[in-house]
Each structure stands twice: as C-alpha cells, then as structure tokens.
Amino acid sequence: MAQYKELKVWQKLMDLVVDIYETVNTLPQIEKFALSDQIRRSAVSIPSNIAEGAGRNHTKEFIQFLYISLGSLYELQTQLEIAKRVGYISNIAELNNQTLEIEKMLNALITSMKKSIL
Predict the structure, then answer these.
(1) Is the pLDDT score of 109 beyond 90?
(2) Model pTM?
(3) Is residue 30 pLDDT above 90, yes or no?
(4) What is the DSSP string of 52-94?
(5) Quick check: 43 and 102 in contact, CB under 8 A?
(6) Where are the domains positioned within the chain?
(7) CATH architecture under which domain 3-116 falls
C-alpha cells in the first residue's frame, strides 16, 4: 500500500469525495456540465494531489502539492457556497464541517512537513 493511503487526511478526503458525488447527484440536470462538474473536479483533485505529491519522493515537492490540495479545498468550499446561494443545495453544514476539519489537517501536515526539512 502506498504511504499516502495511510494519511488520515487522505482517507477523510476519500470519504468527502464520496459525499460530494452523492450531493452533486441531487443538483438539477442543467448543472450537469457546469457547477456540478466543477465541484466534482475540485473534490477529486484534493486527494489526487496528495497522492501525486507523495509520489515525488521529495519533501519540498510534497509540501507544494499539499498547498495545491489546500487551494483546491478552498475552491470546493467556494463552489459549495455558490450551490447553496443559488438554491441547489439547502444544507451544506456537514460538508462544510468536513472541509474545515480537512483544512486543519492539511495545514497541520504542511507545518509538520516544513519542520522536518529544517
């Protein structure tokens, strides 16, 4: 098993991706290739970048990919808020809770990784 799969943040992200897919399936058909597609892409890119960064075998590169994951997480948070504001999703509280927890975990991992290279 690849080491990144052992990361709790990656595991939580995989659960989030499933939840995102379930949520997006409830969006109107008109959004199939617009907002819903963008939400799915953002969600999938977060754990994917962690995996790619871990595969680089250089701590500095891994940290850079963690920052990219964090950026995609912020993008996802924004897209969920847009979906809520336009009335496509009425309750995003649980998804918001998941993303906030993951945000904290990513920031902690970045901090830890930075300390390891000092």
Answers:
(1) yes
(2) 0.94
(3) no
(4) HHHHT--HHHHHHHHHHHHHHHHHHHHHHHHHHHTTS-S--HH
(5) no
(6) 3-116
(7) Up-down Bundle (1.20)
